[in-house]
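Record type: monomer structure entry
Structure origin: computed from sequence
Chain ID: A
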Amino acid sequence: MIKPSVSQELNNIKPLLLPALFIYVFILFVMPSFQHGWDSYCWTTWAIQLKERGLVSAYEQGSSINYLPLYTYALKAFSYFYESSEISENIYKLKRLTSLFDMATILLLCSMVKESSNRLKYFIFGALNIGFFYNTLIWNQVDGILTFFVFASFFFAYHKNTFGSLILFLLALNFKLQAIVFAPVLAALWWPELTLKNTIRYFFSLLLIQVIIILPFLINGNAKNILKVTFESVDYFQFVSMNAFNFWHIILNGDLMTMPDNTPVLFGYTYKSIGLGLFSICCLLICVPLYLKIYKAYLSKKEVHFDLKWLLLSMTLICYTFFFFNTQMHERYIHPVIIFLTALAFLYKQWGVWVLVSLNYAFSLDSICNYFKINQNHVFFFYADFMAAMYAIGLLWLCILWYKALPARAFYYKRLENE
C-alpha cells in the first residue's frame, strides 16, 4: 500500500494533468520525423523481427537484439499497429511512447514542488528543456524511459516506500543495465527499511516479478541468453569514448572512438582500468557519508533522515562521474543526470548548473545528429574540447554544492549528533 506521504505528493499532480495532456497532444503534432539513422535502423529491424518471428525470437541464436526484455515488449507492442512493410516509415512514432515517460517523469518531479503556484510554470520549464527532450523528440532514443524508472525509484525510496522503489528499480534494470550505477545511493535509502522479515518478503516478491518479466523466454528455453546479452553489453564497444565528451577528451588527442581502451598506458594500467578506478573513488566519496549517517543513527537508536538536496546531489554525481571518467561511454549516458539537475533547479534554485549541463548535453547530441543544420566547424560550442571542459566545470560546480550540503563537513560529525 502506498504510504500517505507518497499519496499526498502524487495528488499534487492532478491540476497538471490537463496541461500535460495539451502539451503531449501538441508534441504529437509538431514531432519531427527526423531520427538518428543507426538507432532507428535497429528499432526497425528488431520490431520487424519481433512481429514476424514472435517475442521469444529476441534472444534466440543469431538475433541482433542487444537490449533487455522491457524494451522488446515495447517494440513488440509497437509492431502490432503496422504491417512489416510499414514499420520503417513509422518507426519515428516510437517517440510517442518515450514522450509519455518523459512527461510522467516531469510530473513526478513537479509533485515535489511545495509552492502550488509554481508547479505549472516548472512543468513547462521541464517540458522545454532541450537537453532532456532532444534525446526523445529528435534522436528517437529511449533513455527517457530508463530515467523515469530511476527517478520514480528514487521518489518512492525517499518517501520510505521501499518495496515500490525496489520494483521500479528492478524495472529499470530490465530496461537498461546502466541503472545499476544508482544502486549504491538508492541502497542507502532502502537499508533502514530492510529488516530480516522485509528482506525475505521483498526478495521473493521481486523474484516473482522477475520471473513474470522473462516468462515467455523461460517457456521458450532461451532465457539464459538474456544473461548473455546483459554481460556482453559491457565491453560492447572497447574504445576510450563513444562521443562522450568527458575526461578523456580533456587529456587525450585524436579519434577516441577508434582508440582501444585496453591499451596499457600507466604502470601497466589501461585507460579502462584508470577510468574505472577514478569512478570507484568518486563512488566511495559520495556514498561513505550516506552510510556513516546510517551507522550513526543506528548507534544512537534514532531514525535516519536524509536531506533531500544532499540525496539529489548524490544521485546526480554518481551518474555524472560514471559518465565523466569511465571509458566506452556514449554521449547519452549522462541523460538521467538532467532530471536530477532539474530537481535541484526547481526545488533549490540551482538554475546555473542546470542550464550549463542541459545546454552542453544538447550541443553534444546535436554534434552527432546536426538536426539544426549548423556549420559546427565554425561554432566553438560544438568543439569536443569545449564540451568536455563544460562538463568538467559542471562536475566541479556539483562537487562544491555536494560538499556544502554534507551534514558534517570534513567528516566532523557534530551536526549529525544534533539531528
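Annotation 1: The chain is about 65% helix and 0% strand.
Annotation 2: The radius of gyration is 22 Å.
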